[in-house]
Write a structure and sequence with these properties.
The structure is a homodimer of 159-residue chains. The termini of chain A are far apart. In chain A, helix 2 packs across helix 3. Chain A is elongated, with a radius of gyration of 20 Å. Chain A has 159 residues and is of the alpha+beta class. In chain A, helix 2 links the parallel strand 2 and strand 3. Chain A has one domain: CBS-domain, CATH 3.10.580.10. The first copy, chain A, has five helices and seven strands. In chain A, the strands form two sheets. The first copy, chain A, has a four-stranded mixed beta sheet. Chains A and B meet through helix 1, helix 2, helix 3, helix 4 and helix 5 of A and strand 1, helix 1, helix 2, helix 3 and helix 4 of B. Strand 1 of chain A pairs antiparallel with strand 1 of chain B. Chains A, B: One of its GO terms (molecular function) is DNA-binding transcription factor activity.
Chain lengths: 159, 159
Amino acid sequence: ARPRVGYFFTGKTGNELLADKLKKITVAEYQSIPIVIKENDSVYDAISTMFLEDVGTLFVIDEAALLTGVVSRKDLLRASLGNQDLASLPVNIIMTRMPNVAICKKDDYLLDAASKLIEKQIDGLPVVDQTPEGLQVVGRITKSNMTKALVELAGNRRR
Amino acid sequence: ARPRVGYFFTGKTGNELLADKLKKITVAEYQSIPIVIKENDSVYDAISTMFLEDVGTLFVIDEAALLTGVVSRKDLLRASLGNQDLASLPVNIIMTRMPNVAICKKDDYLLDAASKLIEKQIDGLPVVDQTPEGLQVVGRITKSNMTKALVELAGNRRR
């Protein structure tokens, strides 16, 4: 028999193999820890948290720890330009509110989350768990995670 | 002769093919148009430009149109918290200044640019052209471009 090493039959091109591998990656494999603040926290607190945690997106939760909104660096920059007292302005006034918040789940495909980021022109999505009470925030997936995924696909694992 | 359709010899696994394809992509294939401001423009002007152009990173140039610095959304948010008059504060006071600015060239590999974004924890890099006079800004490459690259690698071309 002729040696088969190095030969394989797939009916697919290299590009298709690439696509197949990529398409199977889930959000769970690349998600980061979510950074949350409470609805009644001030915009000033939100900005402080954003710098302290060095993230671009904060998730806003209510007293029951359920997702009610999202604030981005852009939202905070816009608010800081207004001549308001940031320490007495609650973050829920300036946040993007449910149901207008784009979300994803940990078992979603990474590519679907990436497409949402591009379409909605946002930097990050909350990874949520649907419970009878509402949405619990279990992670965050951002353009930084997508950039890491790209680098790791090339074989340079950095995690 | 036996049909060769669907067979190919590479001596490589699917993952290696993936890595090879990825490694050959250059910055030029994914770069966006750069948004620049002048050194003496105010921080207020910079924030306005950032919202108008909807970008996360602005490149700062001198009178000869050469790169002298970079300002991020984070830099502008930090500045806006200080109690200064943003309209009279020149952007070159708060920018990250050359030679501390991470840069790339259009023929660089996209993966090297992606690694720089991760290592330096920044959202975008200027794509520059080295001239005898200094660095001309010819493009911008960001985590958004990396996210698009990831989606397009899966075969969902959106450009």
